[in-house]
Inverse folding.
């Protein structure tokens, strides 16, 4: 269904990477964006290690990976005759890593063969990175407080240290006044659906907020905001279901203002063996494939909550770029052959 209302960010002219990697790597814009990105990542490490999080190096291949990527295909790797996968996200390893340390993070590459039609959405790369965080024993409120503090710290450090770079890109840092000075907003998925439907956008109450809907609510905001309580069918088996309200997940997304849309997804996690197996079956996953993970879960893994911030999307928002690929040195757009 098409919406009667069109967000302006989605209708911006699609801009593709230059075919020549030299042109991209030597462009003044790329260098400036990557300098800001480096500052954001340094800020993330500073903030998280300051809170006692332990940085882990992320695995890149494994027998299974996150099945919850909206419509994206996984990439197979021949691992000595076994079919392994490139990581679509670090979720299974994040939960397992809590057996070593109670608070962990990693900055991890993810590969998702997104549908061809996402090539010019400005948001989709086939290879991207996440700042992936997991904390044992945390509630949703505790983990969203970490997200909020982290985002504020990263942006604050970048705008303080690199004012010239923001000016070069024409990004007015007054866009971050509310982000730096006020608590982030918070609405439930049901409230977001009602707002969109009232505004003439036919958003389904049982699904992820679609991309047009996401851009619409994002465009109306003046600061980042959390959308909480997504319906069960819309997410992977690892987002914990509410004990009080069946069918509602204890999860959240963080959306940027100005139409940039989703920056981060997170949740309290499911950690109970029987419930995970049930959720796997409900989401069409074969539990037999998840041998190593389920063996750990059966013996016990900590309850936790965590999140992943998309590095390129976050950099795009902070720098005010047209497209997420501009925040990657070797951008891979869905379907486009590139280095
Ligand atoms: P997800 O597990 O799909 O919620 O992804 C976690 C975060 O990674 C999202 O909030 C985005 O910021 C980012 N992300 C997801 N898919 C892509 C993609 N195809 N290209 C770039 N960033 C992505
Ligand atoms: Mg998400």
């Amino acid at each position: 269904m098409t919406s009667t209302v069109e967000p302006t960010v989605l209708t911006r002219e699609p801009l593709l990477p230059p075919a020549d990697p030299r042109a991209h790597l030597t462009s003044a814009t790329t260098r400036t964006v990557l300098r800001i990105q480096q500052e954001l990542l340094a800020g993330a490490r500073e903030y998280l290690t300051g809170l006692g999080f332990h940085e882990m190096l992320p695995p890149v291949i494994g027998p299974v990976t996150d099945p919850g990527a909206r419509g994206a295909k996984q990439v197979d790797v021949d691992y000595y005759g076994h079919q392994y996968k490139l990581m679509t996200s670090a979720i299974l390893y994040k939960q397992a890593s809590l057996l070593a340390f109670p608070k962990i993070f990693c900055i991890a590459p993810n590969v998702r063969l997104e549908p061809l039609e996402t090539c010019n959405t400005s948001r989709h790369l086939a290879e991207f990175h996440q700042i992936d965080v997991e904390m044992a024993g945390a509630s949703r409120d505790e983990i969203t407080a970490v997200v909020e503090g982290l985002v504020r710290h990263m942006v604050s450090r970048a705008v303080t240290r690199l004012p010239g770079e923001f000016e070069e890109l024409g990004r007015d840092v007054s866009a971050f006044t509310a982000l730096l000075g006020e608590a982030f907003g918070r609405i439930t998925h049901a409230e977001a659906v009602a707002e969109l439907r009232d505004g003439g956008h036919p958003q389904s109450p049982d699904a992820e907020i679609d991309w047009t809907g996401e851009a619409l609510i994002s465009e109306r905001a003046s600061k980042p905001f959390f959308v909480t309580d997504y319906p069960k069918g819309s997410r992977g088996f690892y987002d914990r279901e509410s004990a009080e309200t069946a069918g509602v997940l204890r999860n959240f997304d963080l959306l940027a203002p100005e139409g940039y849309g989703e920056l981060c997804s997170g949740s309290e996690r499911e950690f109970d063996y029987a419930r995970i197996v049930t959720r796997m079956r409900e989401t069409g996953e074969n539990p037999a494939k998840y041998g190593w993970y389920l063996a750990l879960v059966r013996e016990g893994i900590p309850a936790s909550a965590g999140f992943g911030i998309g590095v390129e999307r976050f950099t795009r928002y902070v720098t005010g770029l047209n497209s997420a690929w501009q925040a990657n040195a070797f951008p891979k757009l869905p379907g486009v052959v590139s280095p």
User: Anything to note?
Assistant: The chain has twelve helices and eleven strands. The longest helix spans residues 28-50.
